[in-house]
Structures are given as structure tokens and as C-alpha cells.
Amino acid sequence: MPDQALPNPGGPSEAERTPLHLSRLREARARLGEARLALASASTPEEIGRCAPLLEETILLLQAIPSLPGGPNRAVEGKAVEDDAELAREFAALQFELGVVRRLIEGGMNFYQGWARILAAVLVGYTPSGEPAALTAQGSVSLEG
After folding, report:
1. Nearest 5°: phi and psi at 60?
2. How far apart (Å, rounded) are the C-alpha atoms in residues 34 and 22?
3. Residue 61 near residue 24 (C-beta atoms within 8 A)
4. What predicted TM-score, i.e. pTM, was given to this entire model?
């Protein structure tokens, strides 16, 4: 019987871990890059909503990395990120991309909240303190069975 490599029940070996982490970090950064481009070019709330699957994919990729860097000791399975220059660069690039996406999302949120305040002021008026009154949305539930 020829020698065959048996799967390691304990997970990847020490030599396989760093390339696996790099691969997942790169994939996560690529998804964030796609989300960033989509957010930056979105012109409707629906287009913004299409970024959610990319962000969810990013989260799943990052959750698949044991002991994700950025924790108290910035270690991946006990190995300090700073000890591996390529892993440290990829992690820094991921953090940068995440910051850009966060700022785009926050900017969009602030934009729409500003429009909601303007709309509330026009439709409902102002409170005695001079703030735009709260705009209440009518809710409904539709069941089909």
C-alpha cells in the first residue's frame, strides 16, 4: 500500500498555519475591497444593501482564523503577528481596509440621518426646544399562509 498523507485530526501543522492565515486574511481583505468599491459607487439604499453579503463573507473568513490578531496579545495561535513580517503587513492592510469601509458606512449613515432630520422638520415641524420633531414610521405586518 503506497504511503498516503492522513488528515491531521488536530488541524493544520505549524508549517501550514501561517500560509492558511495569510490566505484567509487576503481573502477577507479582498471581500472588504469589493465592499469598499461597492459602497463608494452606490447611489441607492438597495445598492448599499448589496454590500451586506460581502461583509458577511469577510466576517466568516476572519472567524475561521483561530485567535485572530488584534486581541490582547496580537497573536495567531500563540505566534505574535510582529514575528512574521508578511502576516503583519497583511493584517495592517486588512485593518486599513476595514477602517475605510467603516468610514464609508458611517458617512452614509450620517447622510441619511441628516436627510431624515430635514424631512422630519418639513413634515412634522419642530419641538419646543427647536429640534426637528421625530419622524415616526407607520409599521405593518403582512402574513401569507
Report:
1. -65, -40
2. 18
3. yes
4. 0.66
Q: Is the alpha carbon torsion for 68, 75, 78, 32 positive or negative?
A: positive
Q: Which amino acid is at 88?
A: A
How crowded is residue 100: how many other Cβ atoms within 10 Å of its Cβ? 15
Amino acid letter at 51? C
> In this structure, are residues 90 and 79 in contact, taking their beta carbons and an 8 Å threshold?
no
Grid cell in block for residue 113:
440621518
**Strands (DSSP E) found in the chain:** 75-76, 79-80
Residues 86/59, Cβ–Cβ less than 8 Å: no
Q: Is 101 exposed, middle or buried (0-12, 13-18, 19+ CB in 10 A)?
A: buried
| pLDDT tens-digit series, residues 89-134 | 888 899 999 999 999 999 988 988 898 888 888 888 888 898 888 8
Q: How far apart are CA 23 and CA 11, in angstroms?
A: 16
